[in-house]
Amino acid sequence: MLRHFTTRLLSRSIKFRPFSTNVAAASAADDAFVKAWRSTIPNLEPPKTPLSFMQPRPPAPSTLPSKLTVNLVLPYSSEFSNKEVDMVIIPATNGQMGILPGHVSTIAELKPGLLSVHEENGVKKYFVSGGFAFIHANSFADIIAVEAVPIDQLDSASAQKGLAEFTQKLSSASTDLERAEAQIGVDVYSAINSALSG
Amino acid sequence: MAMAALRREGRRFATPLMSANPANTLRSSLLPSEEQAILGVRSISTQVVRNRMRSVRNIQKITKAMKMVAASKLRAIQTRTENSRGLWQPFTALLGDLPSVDVKKTVVVTVSSDKGLCGGINSTSVKISRALHKLNSGPEKEAKYVVLGEKAKAQLVRDSKKHIELSMTELQKNPLNYTQVSVLADDILKNVEFDALRLVFNKFHSVVSFMPTTATVLSPEVVEREAESGGKLGDLDLYEIEGAETKGEVLQNLAEFQFSCVLFNAVLENACSEQGARMSAMDSSSRNAGEMLDRLTLAYNRTRQASITTELIEIISGASALTG
């Protein structure tokens, strides 16, 4: 504790910063790294770490927040960033899960399925491929998926066709690899079909 | 070719007239052998200077073109990089970033470019990778390299050949996309044993500034160990694991997904930095070529005027010797 304090005092000027547990832990990790770096490699500047590029998250509030803050990120875009919504229903591996503000911290693995975002002016539905969802104690929800398309961009006819094609491939699969690929196709297409119909 | 021969013939007829007509401006385009035969050795230097000027001018054109190409590629890839920046933030928000974690097996993944002429970014990445390797080698710890990109491979092979586990090149043959990078990440995860993966890349800040960055991805066993021992990951245990599988399997999937996301962002940022560095390198190169061209032009004019002056003096003194 004292060592953390002295390193913080030495490495940066004494600023009165609102104390958030995230920020304190982050700077401690960075300081230990920077110290170890400088002792072994004196000539080079230490590299930056991702924490220095991120906005720190607010800590868990004492009262229940009224809204859930959702980030939906994909490799090619961030669909929502810090969007305030009422409820989110995510397709976890063991079924649809509803997330309200004040939900317990959870790490959930997602399977291909329907994601619906409930806000004041309606419900937005997306079809997501697999991914992960993190729900934090401060009513922040991060959903990381590989693909998320609004379901009005999906065509049910080609989804039916795809399901038929992959079911046929599954029955005629010979190796484990082919069977696994066909099974994945069947799962995804049946999820698309149920999302479009339900 | 025929025109040059004709010109040469024309000049051979004109040479007896030339000594009487000093205002002949065709002199400077004679071939050096012709000039040497008529006027002496001093005019050859104009030809040499002219050749240098031509080659410097060509180089300037090439570097200007390369700068334009790099600028257009940068524009294209910059939007994709900025869109992918949201991808690694949830993982860092959940798991934090522990660059000082103490592990037995570290694997340093260096991201670099395949093509050269991009300034010093590849050397910086290699220096940082070597430093991380040194930081993480000790009596019980060992560190290995996985190299992406030709330039870092060339530099690391020289002295750390036995530490390189895997090397991949030609990443940018097809435009970068997540599928390709996830296959790459899968390859690395399957073939390399690790407790912690440290990615080294250049993060793109602006066209003239690139920050060398290192991102750490821990293996699921180390995550469990750190969560149990408290500290930064201490509240990981507070998180319920939803999923049909066990906690260990979910953590394993999480680590793999985190690695592919962070690697995707790292590769995009490095490509962006490469184009930016190439733009500024080619820009300074064209400027340098322009300055060199100015100096050569001055030298050329001086030599040309000196040879004309000596020619005039000889003619006039010859004429005055005849008359006076």
UniProtKB/TrEMBL annotation, chain A:
Superkingdom as given in the UniProt entry: Eukaryota
Domain ATP synthase F1 complex delta/epsilon subunit N-terminal: 68-139
Location in the cell: Mitochondrion inner membrane
Signal peptide annotation: none
GO cellular component terms, A-Z: mitochondrial inner membrane; proton-transporting ATP synthase complex
Main location: mitochondrion
Gene3D superfamilies: ATP synthase delta/epsilon subunit, C-terminal domain (1.20.5.440), F0F1 ATP synthase delta/epsilon subunit, N-terminal (2.60.15.10)
Similarity annotation: Belongs to the ATPase epsilon chain family.
Protein name per the record: ATP synthase subunit delta', mitochondrial-like
Native source organism of the sequence: Coffea arabica
The organism's taxonomic lineage, starting at the top: Eukaryota, Viridiplantae, Streptophyta, Embryophyta, Tracheophyta
Gene from which this protein is expressed: LOC113726897
Automatic annotation (TrEMBL), chain B:
Principal subcellular localisation of the protein: mitochondrion
Gene3D superfamilies: 3.40.1380.10, ATP synthase, gamma subunit, helix hairpin domain
Compartments, as annotated in UniProt: Mitochondrion inner membrane
GO CC, alphabetical: mitochondrial inner membrane; proton-transporting ATP synthase complex
InterPro entries given in the database record: ATP_synth_F1_ATPase_gsu, ATP_synth_F1_gsu, ATP_synth_F1_gsu_CS
Pfam families associated with the record: ATP-synt (PF00231)
Keywords attached to this entry: ATP synthesis, CF(1), Hydrogen ion transport, Ion transport, Membrane, Mitochondrion, Mitochondrion inner membrane, Transit peptide, Transport
Membrane topology: Peripheral membrane protein
Gene Ontology molecular function terms on file: proton-transporting ATP synthase activity, rotational mechanism
Assembly and oligomerization: F-type ATPases have 2 components, CF(1) - the catalytic core - and CF(0) - the membrane proton channel. CF(1) has five subunits: alpha(3), beta(3), gamma(1), delta(1), epsilon(1). CF(0) has three main subunits: a, b and c.
Family: Belongs to the ATPase gamma chain family.
Protein's job: Mitochondrial membrane ATP synthase (F(1)F(0) ATP synthase or Complex V) produces ATP from ADP in the presence of a proton gradient across the membrane which is generated by electron transport complexes of the respiratory chain. F-type ATPases consist of two structural domains, F(1) - containing the extramembraneous catalytic core, and F(0) - containing the membrane proton channel, linked together by a central stalk and a peripheral stalk. During catalysis, ATP synthesis in the catalytic domain of F(1) is coupled via a rotary mechanism of the central stalk subunits to proton translocation.
Protein name: ATP synthase subunit gamma, mitochondrial
Species annotation: Coffea canephora (Robusta coffee)
Phylogenetic placement of the source organism: Eukaryota, Viridiplantae, Streptophyta, Embryophyta, Tracheophyta
